[in-house]
Write a structure and sequence with these properties.
- The protein is α/β, with parallel strands linked by helices.
- The chain has 13 helices and 21 strands.
- It folds into 3 domains: about 5-105 and about 190-225 and about 375-410, ATPase, nucleotide binding domain (Nucleotidyltransferase, domain 5); about 110-190, Dna Ligase, domain 1, CATH 3.30.1490; about 260-290 and about 315-370, ATPase, nucleotide binding domain (Nucleotidyltransferase, domain 5, 2-Layer Sandwich), CATH 3.30.420.
- It has a 6-stranded mixed β-sheet with strand order 13-6-1-2-3-21. Strands 16-15-14-19-20 form a 5-stranded mixed β-sheet, sandwiched between helices. A 4-stranded antiparallel β-sheet has the order 7-12-9-10.
- Strand 4 (about 65) and strand 5 form a beta hairpin.
- Helix 8 runs antiparallel to helix 10 (about 310-335).
- The radius of gyration is 24 Å and the shape is globular.
- It binds adenosine-5'-triphosphate and magnesium ion.
- Adenosine-5'-triphosphate binds near residues 104, 260, 264, 351 and 353.
């Protein structure tokens, strides 16, 4: 009887509102056939890969000791992380020492980066190798980041050969100069270090840090959607991210300085309620649909030990100016992005759950918009994809990172590796 071994991966999203954790189970990839391993890394046969991954559980707890994308109390944040991860590990009966950390968009910036390197010293031309490609990508990174910045993702968009022809993979071609146009996703190094420190203090190692919304694309979009082109919108508490995926990579990114909390704030101010009470009302009664702004029925709101009636239409109308402002931001942001190949908008983030907001976004930008659905199997039945796709994506990215490492360090192909390297050295010097 064949024994199927399993591996577990944990994603941790330290958000402004909530610490979220997700744990996935993957059939041990060291047992996979080599072709499937390569497919997993290259993003090919991703639907097969998704069938090997199962979400065991996800959970969210209020964030303490962290605000506006920075640690404000190391001990408090570390305790919160420990409690959140430990509770879920116990629930799914798994032991882990590592978590794949995600950082949010108020900490993250995306920058275009270009660089060119000469390829020839003595001879007129040279065959481009993978080492050359790595060298020019490293050069683009070095030239375009500051000393206090840390790169989370390096995403080459295309290469140029001799300043003229473009290629997605120029290895094996002749050239004198190799250029690259990259997108780099970066964050303030000390802010990231402080969050990693809190995770260490909580008792876990961090093999890798990713950008949350980018990792969420692994789950909210399937492989063909990421290849064909899709807009993904992540409405968080304070900030909204707009990401364009195409050719299985990130092609564009914009931040909107508004999130779900701005709608809560409007309800609180207009109806003279506390933020927490307004938040509760928003989740259970608020709607952005115009038909709901005419309903006269009242709901009873508990305020200072007494019940006060509030009209449903007043709750909905109180948010309308902020909803209009938000839609204007979305229109403006999308107008400045290349979205021709993207047939629709896929929504994630807790803010996307506000009743009617997805429909309003679709109408505002004249394009269908829909809530993301989960692409992998979930052991506990239905899962809140809007809120948890980032942590599941982080865990999946952690798994893919491990597979990439396993392929690179696999020693059974050492003769081929040496011969490739000798061939590259030959091209480099002759
Ligand atoms: N059912 C719901 N209806 C309306 N809004 C909701 C609902 N659930 C969550 N939200 C809103 O979603 C926002 C939080 O979203 P999310 O959990 O994605 O943010 P976060 O990841 O903690 O924060 P950030 O990404 O900004 O760091 C809050 O503004 C909250 O009010
Ligand atoms: Mg978030």
């Amino acid at each position: 009887m064949a024994i199927v071994r399993e591996k577990y991966y944990c994603g941790l999203d330290v958000g402004n509102k909530e610490i979220k954790v997700g744990i996935v189970k993957v059939k041990d990839s060291s047992w996979w056939p080599k072709a499937r391993l390569s497919q997993a890394v290259l993003g090919l046969g991703e639907s097969v890969l998704d069938r090997e991954i199962e979400l065991l559980g996800s959970d969210g707890h209020k964030t303490l000791g962290f605000s506006n994308g920075a640690v404000s109390d190391l001990g408090e944040l570390a305790d919160g992380i420990h409690a959140s991860v430990q509770t879920l590990l116990r629930k799914v009966k798994v032991k882990l020492k590592e978590v794949y950390l995600g950082v949010g968009c108020d900490l993250v910036e995306v920058r275009e980066a270009d660089a060119v390197i000469p390829l020839v010293d003595r001879s007129a031309n040279k065959i481009i190798t993978h080492r050359d490609m790595k060298k020019v990508v490293d050069q683009a990174r070095a030239l375009n980041i500051q000393i206090d910045e840390e790169v989370l993702h390096d995403l080459p968009q295309y290469y140029t050969i001799d300043g003229a022809n473009r290629a997605m993979d120029p290895s094996g071609l002749y050239g004198r100069k190799l250029g690259v146009h990259s997108l780099i996703i970066l964050a303030n190094a000390n802010r990231v270090r402080n969050i990693v420190r809190a995770v260490h203090q909580a008792g876990y190692d961090v093999p890798h840090v990713f950008f949350n919304s980018y990792a969420a694309g692994e789950i909210a979009l399937n492989a063909s959607e990421r290849a064909q082109g899709r807009i993904m919108m992540d409405i968080g508490s304070q900030v909204t991210d707009l990401l364009i995926f195409k050719d299985d990579t990130l092609k564009g990114f914009k931040k909107i300085p508004m999130g779900g909390d701005h709608f809560t704030q409007s309800i609180a101010q207009q109806l003279n309620l506390s933020f927490d009470l307004a938040e509760e009302i928003k989740k259970s009664h608020a709607s952005t649909l115009s038909t709901d702004r005419t309903h006269d029925e009242e709901i009873l709101v508990k305020k200072e030990s007494a019940y006060r009636p509030v009209r449903h239409k007043d709750i909905c109308s109180s948010m309308e100016p902020q909803v209009q402002r938000f839609l204007e931001y979305v229109r403006e942001a999308l107008a400045g992005m290349e979205t021709l190949d993207c047939p629709d908008i896929i929504m994630i983030g807790g803010g996307a759950l506000l009743t009617g907001l997805i429909e309003r976004i679709g109408q505002a930008v004249n394009r269908p918009a829909r809530l993301a659905s989960m692409n992998i199997h979930c052991a506990t039945g239905a899962m809140n994809t809007a809120v948890f796709s980032a942590v599941v994506g982080l865990a999946k990215k952690g798994f893919k990172q491990g597979v990439r490492y396993a392929i690179r360090s696999s020693s059974d192909n050492w003769t081929k590796n040496i011969s490739n390297r000798l061939q590259e050295l030959y091209y480099e010097y002759f």
